[in-house]
Structures are given as structure tokens and as C-alpha cells.
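so the lab meeting is tmrw and i was supposed to have these ready like two days ago... anyway. pasting both below. for each one the top line is the aa sequence and the line under it is the C-alpha cells. i havent really looked at them closely yet so no promises
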Amino acid sequence: MSAATSFGTETSAAVLGKSVRVTGEIYCNEPLTIEGEVEGSIDVTGHLLTIAPRGNVRASVRAREIDVLGSLQGNVEGVEKIYVRNGARFVGDIHARGIVIEDGGFVCGKVELSRQGIFPFGS
């Protein structure tokens, strides 16, 4: 019996808790929430990456969408949309279809937006 079945949910999601610290590469084939610290690279191509308010990520990132509520330092690509929420901090380059920066969100880096479907999800 899968975890999704045992909890009665339709979709699964991975969570790295606030006491977790990862150094290296993360590959995840489901939505991922980071509450702790990650340094290295994160690949959740085709899924949502959420960086919780106290999450601290220093990594290159590939994801369908990124929701930054904490801190993200690194370059992101293959992103349909990135959200930088009030109180969040993003430092690095963004290659995405869209970006939403809430009042109070901080962004420092190059932003390259594209309307074309150039993001090779699943490759």
C-alpha cells in the first residue's frame, strides 16, 4: 500500500523538514517542499518546488513552478512560473515563462522571460 493510499490522498508530495540539511543532488518526481537547508542542485522537472518561509536553498533548480517563501540563491531554468512571496529572497538568474514578485519580495539577478514553449519537461 502506498503512502498516498494509506493517507487517502490522490497525489503524493515530498517534504524535507526544517531540521533536514542536504548537500548534493536532489531528483524528485513529485512536488517537493523544502523547510530546511539544501546546497547543490534540485531537479523536480514537471512539478512544483516550494521553499517554505524558513527554508534556505543554495542550488541550481529545474522545476515546472517554484514558490519561494524563504530564501533561494542559485539559477533556475525550465520554469513555467516563479513566485517570490512577501518576505522571500531570491538571488540568481531566472529563465522562465513568468514571474510574480509580491510587494516585499526581493529579487537580485538576471530575469529572462520567454513566451515560447521551450521548456523540455521530462528530458
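ok protien two:
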Amino acid sequence: MAGRKQFLLRIDPALWRELERWAADDLRSVNAQVEWLLRDAVRARRGGAAAARASRGRATDPDATPPSTDEH
């Protein structure tokens, strides 16, 4: 596995406290919580972009999951 990229993040103290609480609830460090949040946001963005491409008939991302056509 490649090394991890480090970067400095300046964050509002109130937001930091919220992240600490959330991380503790999920049994993660704040660093792991922030990384999880970023991964989740990227995954959601990719899913939204893939759905938009598919609706235009241009699903070009081989990793993208096609939108469901099941109607309940």
C-alpha cells in the first residue's frame, strides 16, 4: 500500500468538538472519522455523477453502478 498523504487542516474548534463526539460514537479517531467522511462524500459524488451520465445514456465509468430500474 502506498504511503498516506499528510496535510495541515485548520478547523473551527466547535466543529472539531463535534467531530470528536461523532468519532467517539463510531469508535474511530478524529483522523479516521474525517477520512471516512471524505471517502463517503467522494463515493456519493461518484454515484451521483454516474447516475447523471447513465440518464443521458453515456455511462462510461466501468466502476459505476447503473441506476436501479426496479419499480416497487
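from a quick look at the 2nd one: The chain is about 55% helix and 0% strand. The helical segments are 13-25, 30-55. will dig more after coffe
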